[in-house]
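Q: I have 393 residues here and want to know how they pack in 3D. Can you give me a structure?
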Amino acid sequence: MTTRLRVAIIGTGFMGRMHSHAWRTAPRFFDLSPAPEAVLLVGSDADRTAAAAAEFGIAESSSDWRSAIARDDIDIVDICTPGHTHAEIALAALAAGKHVLCEKPLANDVAEADRMADAAASAAERGVVSMCGFSYRRTPALALAKKLIDDGRLGRIRHVRAQYLQDWLTSPDAPFTWRLDRARAGSGTLGDIGAHSIDTAQWLTGSAITGVSATLRTFVESRPRLNEHVGLGGNADADAPREQVTVDDAVAFTASFADGALGVFEATRMAAGHRNANRIEVNGELGSVAFDFSFMNELQFHDAQLPSDEQGFRRIDVTEPDHPYAGAWWPAGHGLGYEHLFTHQAVDFVRAITDGVAARPGFAEAARVQRVLAAVEASAASDSRHTAVEGAR
């Protein structure tokens, strides 16, 4: 095996910046051999990509992802582009024998996701590893929640309650970005942040969502043309022409799980005052766990088996050395941040490659999330009629 795993990051925006940080940080805090190194940044504009590469500390840049994949000295292709490009890039990379990390949601529709999952399965037979970047799984507190559930501390699961609330589109004059274009994004709030809640819920419970009843809303139907991109949004001139919004602003749905649990989901990018409130609660016959990313180093746990005079939710500070991932970082009580999730993701991906095991979530698992997204849209289009999730079991 080589002494390095050389990474080509495709995409220069928010996620490209975050992933470059993760690849740089991972081998400095975790024992990884061979160590990953981001050696190439690929974007659509040569000059902007070169400037971003210099800023991110990446030696080379390119505006041609096909030539990047063809290079013999690239081991990992890290896809951080809008959703409509995922399938083409991933399929080419897998065919070339490259390990592939792809941002979520996996694709823009079920057909694309299935092609990617099939290609990933074939590539796995040749030792090629692929994974979809549902990064919240790598939050230490949520990883602890998963352990508690898997250890039976909650017993049979009855309820899942998930919210993902943002507010960066609250103003009707917030500018139009690619995330508001169905052709590029696939869907709006549903796929952008609702997909995280769906993945987290199925992962925590170990049970698939089998049916949904859903409502979608688009509150602002046009937005001013973007002038300057900043963060998720940006700035627009006061007299800028307006672009048509073709995705949802908000989604709410109930869900049935294969194990009989009931789910309630809400996601919006228009909840004023909520910058990034990713919340989930799981209730079982023996207890409950609750998590809010605004307090990402904490997990609320209720043990219903304690005497009644000792019951109630208690806060666990998930920063101890024996908590998931936490031991590689700081002394207990010194919390982690959003960027650490992507470092943990890079670590898990590299270890899957070096250990010769499947990375999770793999493309097949991510395609199951895509099926839930499709069922939500189908239900909303039919007056919230209960809609089965294709292939769920």
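Q: Anything worth noting?
A: The mean pLDDT is 96. Residues 301 and 314 are 5 Å apart (CA to CA).
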